[in-house]
Amino acid sequence: MDLIIRSAALKDLPAILDIVNHSILHSTAIYDYDVRTMEEQQAWFEQMVLNGMPVIVAEQEGKVIGYGSYNIFRPKIGYKFSVEHSIYLDDKSRGMGVGGRLLGSLIQRAKEQGLHTMIAGIDASNRGSIEFHKKYGFVEKGYLKEVAYKFDQWLDLVFMQLLLDDHY
Fold it and tell me: Which SUPFAM superfamilies would you find in this protein's record (predicted)?
């Protein structure tokens, strides 16, 4: 089964929406409470395209099984060379190398755009994601205690960083 990593298109939004809404409802990978609507997801996608930020999908046998993106880390001009990325997979596609292929593509695109650093904000209880990022050269740079609240509990956030100039 061949895995294709490609730029997302409008036709991929229903699958992307299903994946992100599942994460909202069932995980602390994203700190949103309410599922997104198709209109919200389309507005997000259009803004990403307008800003020149990538949205990519992993496709297998014609089905989108994951997606990734990045955007400027913070909305101030001084952060224009720093991006924060996100990768989400459907439940059946975890542990198959899909996330690594998406991350590798995002890293390559960031380097091609002349960006300097990529940041991951990860729920501290998600040890799998933290270890995954370490495999790709990310280093833990910050730990923020009880900065979010979801599922009737306080959540800690870990920031990890990859300096793109040092990554080959």
Answer: Acyl-CoA N-acyltransferases (Nat) (SSF55729)
pTM of the model: 0.94
> Structure tokens of 21?
């809404």
**Residue 64, both tokens:** 């989108």
19/111 Cα distance (integer angstroms): 27
Structure tokens at 26: 């069932």
Residue 30's SS3 state is: coil
pLDDT per residue as tens digits for the range 110-156: 999 999 999 999 999 999 999 999 999 999 999 999 999 999 999 99
CA atoms of 87 and 67, how far apart (whole Å)? 6
The CA angle 31-24-1, to the nearest 5 degrees, is 125
Domain ranges of the chain: 3-166
Three-class SS state of 69: strand
Phi and psi at residue 106, in whole multiples of 5°? -65, -40
127: its two tokens: 């040890």
